[in-house]
Amino acid sequence: MQDTAIDLSTRLIHHGYTPPEGFFAPAPAVHKASTVIFPNVAAMRSREWKDKSSYTYGLHGTPTTFTLEERLCALEGGLQCVLVPSGLAAIATVSLALLRSGQQVLIPDNAYGPNASMAAATLAQFGIAHALYDPLNPADLAAKITPATRLVWLEAPGSVTMEFPDLPALVRLCQAQGVTTALDNTWGAGLAFAPFDLTGDGTLAVDISAHALTKYPSGGGDVLMGSIITRNPALHLKIKLLHMHLGLGIGGNDAELLLRSLPSIALRYRAHDLTARHLARWLQQQAAVVQVLHPALPDTPGHAHWQALCGSAHGGDGAAAGLFSVILDERYSQQQVDAFCDGLRHFKIGYSWGGPISLVMPYELSTMRSLPTPHLRPGRLVRFSIGLEATQDLQQDLQQALEQALPAL
Ligand SMILES: *Cc1c(COP(=O)(O)O)cnc(C)c1O
To answer: Where do the H-state alpha helices sit in 8-149?
Structure first.
């Protein structure tokens, strides 16, 4: 069932699972365990927790979590997977597993915020330095790589300002310097592009794909989980060892939620994408909006890189998730922008994305970036996560809130 000529949805739905003898239900069983009983001492001594050859203790995996790990590998094109209790735990586990005192990590300036704040607070405690690089400027990354740099984080696009980097160029640059690359692949979700095959000919891959399964793989806004996927046994083992020593496990019920949602991920992702693009284009025409940041729209910084990496999916439509931001005219006050967010009825105010409910969140850009952002127009940023509601209802909602809160200037 790993035949990549077969569509991903089909492969996820028909992914191998052997039900108990005489009970041929296709849904995997939900196994829960701390203790796993060994038939005898010799069996206990012979079992190995570091690979999937046997079961030893709930923290090291159950048939349910092993099945989920294998399906996530199918989704992202990886070979090994470690499951953690959140997306942020995936980021922290990667950084802590790979970095030692005296070394340095580089993080894109538009990265998911807690990645950089974790580096500034926690990694610094261990004598690990970090620096931020401009994701739109490979030369900036090249200039910031030093002999101490052991890990470079990548994110495509940044999850608030949506700049899409030249991912293949950044990965090649790191490879040339022997630096490990870790991609936060939450936006792409294994659907918009293949993190382990960036050029389509199997010659260029990130080393690690970290994924907040909380978002599209869950799809319900009801579970927190993260994954760390690799294609290198030694790298996987490093991550798995730290994962074990930190005691990071996930519960069987949460794994079940993921297993139930995965078969529909491609359909949901496409639906989020279509509605988001429609609304992003519509918002481009509204007077209050000075810039729309959506990687599939030609005016968005990094659009050409999105086009190159994600543009061939869906018969040339490309694939682009359900997330975008707008910059509202700087002449509106923050109170007016807040009133616009409060005035929305279907869009709820909340963090995260990937669930059925559309979400809105105002962001204060000046507090989020350390490098200059000349590609972003001045104004007030609002991010939308598009859910699965009808496009027309969301558009009408945006229209009424714009009219009510942001009158013509
Ligand atoms: C949400 C998110 C995370 C963190 O995931 P949690 O499960 O909420 O901890 C990491 N990276 C990106 C890009 C995210 O959107």
So the answer is: 8-13, 41-46, 63-76, 87-98, 113-118, 124-125, 138-144
Instruction: Give the tens place of pLDDT for each residue, 261-284.
Output: 999 999 999 999 999 999 999 999
- The CA distance from 106 to 232, in Å, is 21
Q: Which residues pair with 258 in a beta bridge?
A: none
Coil, strand or helix: which one is 11? Answer: helix
**For ligand 1, is residue 112 a contact (CB within 6 Å)?**
yes
φ, ψ for residue 11, nearest 5 deg: -65, -40
> Two tokens at 87?
């997306």
**How many Å apart are CA 219 and CA 231, to the nearest integer?**
26
CATH top class, domain 264-405: alpha beta
Q: Is the CB of 216 under 6 A from ligand 1?
A: no
How confident is the model at residue 4, as a pLDDT?
66
Ligand 1, atom 8: nearest CA belongs to which residue? 87
Ligand 1 centroid from CA 211, angstroms: 8
The structural domains of the chain, with segments of one domain joined by +, span 41-263, 264-405
227 lines ligand 1 (CB under 6 A): no
Residue 213 CA to ligand 1 center (angstroms) comes to 8
Of 69, 28, 17, 65, nearest to 251 (Cα)?
Answer: 65
Do 217 and 262 form a contact (C-beta atoms < 8 A)?
Answer: yes
Distance of CA 223 to the CA centre of its chain: 15
- Looking up tokens 């079961």, which residue turns up? 55
Distance 260 CA to ligand 1 centre (A): 20
**Chain segment 344-393, per-residue pLDDT in tens:** 999 999 999 999 999 999 999 888 999 999 999 999 999 999 999 999 99
225 Cα to the center of ligand 1, angstroms: 9
Nearest residue (CA) to ligand 1, atom 10: 87
Written as one string, the DSSP assignment of 139-171 is HHHHHH--TTEEEEEEESS-TTT-PPP-HHHHH
Whether domain 41-263 has CATH 3.40.640.10: yes
Find all residues with CB under 8 Å of 125, minimum gap 6, and list them. none
Q: Distance between CA atoms of 231 and 180, rounded to whole angstroms?
A: 13
